[in-house]
């Protein structure tokens, strides 16, 4: 009996790993397609597609037409290796055994166009190949500019069994604000993969909009790991709050390096909201000083915490006291009010009510070219 139980447990544990392996291979095929069509690399396109694949495309002049993959590849035979203005991003992947469907977003900012590509893939001779593709387009203000959200994988407060999560309100309010302004948003977590979310209100229209948005929820289920992130691709980084933010993120050196590279090497913006400010307390500049030193900083005030509550006893440190210990000036307003502090390329907010204001300030700085200017 124990042998059978062991086999069942082994299968249960190994299946997710097998699934992740398959998804990585599917992703590799899709990335070959994206890079091949963005940089006119015919060999990569050829590697992504099954040799007899067809594309089902349409335009206003010719209507619906079936394009063999060989014909499609010829569209990218000129200017090999040169960027042609297409910016691609995988939106979702769903697979079962040897078949899969996937969706990708292709932006052409110069023409204010956004394409959504839908793929059918098949595992053939142990390789995932695109066997068909269709696409549709719309006008869009989205650009290649990106913002990186930092979230936590911590499901519990410390070593307790108290559930913790990333603030869904802070995520969707900021995400929606950036998307409306034309920015793409990616998510990174210390371990990558799925994250816990909290403070979901299904009576809130914006919450419902994103909770039932499969592409958005795919992003939360498949956050990037630090090793997948290139700092030069981002204009700003924002630390999301919620109880989970106190654990796993503040001490993660890989995330710290990403944040400071965006800030110092690429003149980007660091921001945080509510308990997300825990993520910036240990950031140091190249000269060894704490980032917060000499700056006004905002976050969730300790005075508003329930000090006798079990969750608070699990906190590894006090945000406000740590900011002050590291040379920063912690500023805050009355409970449940919006408050944003701006100090050069550091923008911090007090609570979820400040999420939109923080995002708008980042957008204002980026749009006006006011990054790097010190604001007292």
From TrEMBL:
GO-annotated cellular components: cytoplasm
Keywords: Lyase, Stress response
One Pfam family linked to the record: DJ-1_PfpI
GO biological process per UniProt: methylglyoxal catabolic process to D-lactate via S-lactoyl-glutathione
Every DJ-1/PfpI domain range: 169-364
InterPro entries linked: Class_I_gatase-like (IPR029062), DJ-1/PfpI (IPR002818), FrzH/put_lumazine-bd (IPR039437), NTF2-like_dom_sf (IPR032710), Prot/Nucl_acid_deglycase (IPR050325)
Gene Ontology molecular function: glyoxalase III activity
Keyword Lyase: yes
Family, per entry: Belongs to the peptidase C56 family. HSP31-like subfamily.
Protein name (record): Nuclear transport factor 2 family protein
